[in-house]
Design a protein that fits this description.
The chain is an alpha/beta fold and 328 residues long. The chain has one domain (11-315): Alpha-Beta Barrel (TIM Barrel), CATH 3.20.20. 39% of the residues lie in helices and 14% in strands. The chain is built from 11 helices and 10 strands. Strands 1, 2, 3, 4, 5, 6, 7, 8, 9 and 10 form a 10-stranded parallel sheet that branches. The chain binds S-adenosylmethionine, 6-(5-methyl-2-OXO-imidazolidin-4-yl)-hexanoic acid and iron/sulfur cluster. Residues 47, 63, 101, 133, 154, 156, 193, 223, 225, 228, 265-266, 293-296 line the site of 6-(5-methyl-2-OXO-imidazolidin-4-yl)-hexanoic acid (DTB).
């Protein structure tokens, strides 16, 4: 992996990249991708909602917020054995990472957290990269997760600082950044990205990438989600984000965070194979596989398998990359 990576970016620089003619942008991003990664290798993550619905936050995109009337059924924390079975199936299906999500505002120091720590230990012992997304964490909680063997923590900034208050009112952008810094301090790799298609401007998209790239150390993985507009949420009427805007976002993320994994995340069900191919070309090198994301559908296992065969993609092995990126 090349070490000469530019570390600080200005808004103007990002804007110039973002606004390049699309095919030129894709070509440049593909070249950056080849320099830093094994082209065609895709990191496959499997996602499981270990505690579903009933969340006290008001994230306007989220079907799991208690205050919206969606079809999501509230489910308490899953049993460790059930989670392990899902992790074993994910491993057998070729996933290198297993990500457990909980509809919590923040982690509390209680028995449920102790059970999650057990799940982390057990999944780690299967030889999978373990990831959690549990809401806000204190420094001590991040350390406990690290001690249990957590490899990555997902905590999205979702959009720009300026737009954040239009999407969520029950926490601040700084709350999010603080948790990311606790995760980083504990030596866990950071997975952080956001959502497009929520009615944000181009400046917001650029602002979100600018925040991520200018973190003291950029995230090791950057999920780019296309909003899944769910009935009952305030964003239910949002039109699907135009595909070429998704490609532009993926390519820009690849250009400015050359060493990170860029994950083509929620919204893949709506994309054809040809559209996904252009995203992989533009630098996406990670996906969530399995027929469900947290509560919404995702492409079927066999469909993805066929896509990998046709496009000549290979699933990467776990623990492939050095554990954390370092500022150079
Ligand atoms: N409660 C924790 C939190 O908010 O960090 C973890 C789970 S939360 C569902 C994880 C992420 O999923 C959110 O930060 C958001 O980026 C993404 N997400 C949630 N609903 C989505 C939707 N309808 N479309 C696209 N992404 C979504
Ligand atoms: C991320 O960036 N996307 C995933 C994962 N991190 C946790 C979640 C997507 C959720 C989509 C809506 C749902 O299935 O509930
Ligand atoms: Fe709760 Fe997370 Fe959904 Fe926000 S995104 S409502 S914090 S589960």
């Amino acid at each position: 992996m090349s070490e000469s990576v530019k570390r600080f970016w200005t808004r103007e620089e990002l804007q110039t990249i973002y606004n390049k003619p699309l095919l030129e942008l894709v070509l440049e991003a593909a070249n950056v991708h080849r320099q830093h990664h094994s082209f065609g290798e895709v990191q496959v993550s499997s996602l499981l909602s270990i505690k579903t619905g009933g969340c006290s936050e008001d994230c306007s995109y989220c079907p799991q917020a208690a205050r919206y009337n969606t079809d999501v059924e509230v489910q308490p924390l899953m049993k460790t054995e059930e989670v392990l079975e899902a992790a074993q199936n994910a491993k057998a299906g070729g996933a290198s990472r297993f990500c457990m999500g909980a509809a919590w505002r923040e982690v509390r120091d209680n028995r449920d957290f102790d059970r999650v720590l057990d799940m982390v230990k057990e999944v780690n012992s299967l030889g999978l990269e373990v990831c959690c997304t549990l809401g806000m964490l204190t420094e001590q909680q991040a350390q406990k997760l690290a001690d249990a063997g957590l490899y990555a923590y997902n905590h999205n900034i979702d959009t720009s600082a300026e737009n954040y208050g239009n999407i969520i009112s029950t926490r601040t952008y700084d709350d999010r950044l603080n948790t990311i810094s606790h995760v980083r301090k504990a030596g866990i790799t950071v997975c952080s990205g956001g959502i497009i298609g929520m009615g944000e401007t181009e400046e917001d998209r650029i602002g979100m990438l600018l925040t991520l790239v200018n973190l003291p150390v950029p995230p090791e993985s950057v999920p780019i989600n296309a909003l899944v507009a769910v009935k009952g949420t305030p964003l239910e009427e949002q039109q699907r984000v135009p595909f070429y805007e998704l490609v532009r976002m993926v390519a820009t993320a690849r250009m400015v965070m050359p060493q990170s994994a860029v994950r083509l995340s929620a919204g893949r069900l709506e994309l054809s194979m040809a559209e996904q191919a252009l995203c992989f070309m533009a630098g996406a090198n990670s996906i969530f596989a399995g027929d469900k994301l947290l509560t919404t559908p995702n492409p079927e296992f066999n469909e993805d398998k066929q896509m990998f065969e046709i496009l000549g993609l290979r699933a990467s092995q776990p623990f492939k990359k050095e554990k954390t990126l370092h500022a150079s």
